[in-house]
Amino acid sequence: MHDGAVIEVYGISKTFPAERGKRGEPVDVVNSVDLTCAPGRVTCLLGPNGSGKTTLLRMLCGLLCATRGTISIAGFALPDGLKDVQQRTGFVTGSTKLYGKLTGREVLAYFASLYGMSTATVSARLAKLIDDLDLSEFIDKRVDAMSMGMVQRISVARALVHDPEVIILDEPTAGLDVLASRALLKVMADLRDSGKTVLCSTHLMGEVSLIADDVVVIHHGEVKFSGTLDEWHERARGESLEKAFLDLLLESEVSV
Q1: In this structure, is residue 49 part of a structural domain?
Q2: What digits encode the pLDDT tens for the residues 191-237?
Q3: Residue 54: which domain range?
Q4: What pTM did the predictor assign?
Q5: Which of 21-30, 105-114, 176-185 shows the highest mean pLDDT?
């Protein structure tokens, strides 16, 4: 066990069977991944589309069961501790769907009720989220009348409504404009500074340079690099982070 680590992953793999009606072998979408994430730090999970990032994050949230390996979130092992993990984790994805007929405030109140929060607690929590995420201008607008950036900020608030200690974000800025993306990155920095454990997947190196404390690169379901942002800069050897990322992917292709 790593001192201070809130996310601890050892040797996890996810194997999917061959598609029904087609010949072929089962596919390891995630293969023997080790990962640790500590409080007060942002870990950026990098990888191209199809690298296994989303599958890995869904296993950490308990949405998928690992085929092999162990997962511990805030001291609770999956899958047995799923309910405890869900109470301590917030999950955000760029493809979040919210019920369009509800206002932002109603969405947050509904999800707060699912966590068994009292009326007084919900009122105080919503007031803080509205202030922290600058939601006041559209919190009482119906979701189906919101822009994509507004919906994503409501989605972040939804994931934070129960004040989780672990926040997992799957490419949360996908489809957002520059201003909305920067606002969301600031929220992540604020969460980190408040002592939360933040794990965020992305394939945008600019986001990494702005927000990451630690970097993990995954390709073909396997970890190809794991270290601090400073160590990632050292690996780049004066080149851009984008070039270092592409070079690592090319090296991985050669070794496959």
Answers
A1: yes
A2: 999 999 999 998 788 888 899 999 999 999 999 999 999 999 898 88
A3: 7-101+164-255
A4: 0.90
A5: 105-114
**Structural tokens at position 204:** 């945008």
Q: What is the CATH number of the domain that holds 242?
A: 3.40.50.300
132 inside domain: no
Residue-wise pLDDT tens digits, 157-180: 999 999 999 999 998 887 778 888
pLDDT at 252: 75
Name the domain count of the chain: 1
**Closest alpha carbon to 166 in 10, 40, 11:** 40
Instruction: Assess if residue 95 is contained within a domain.
Output: yes
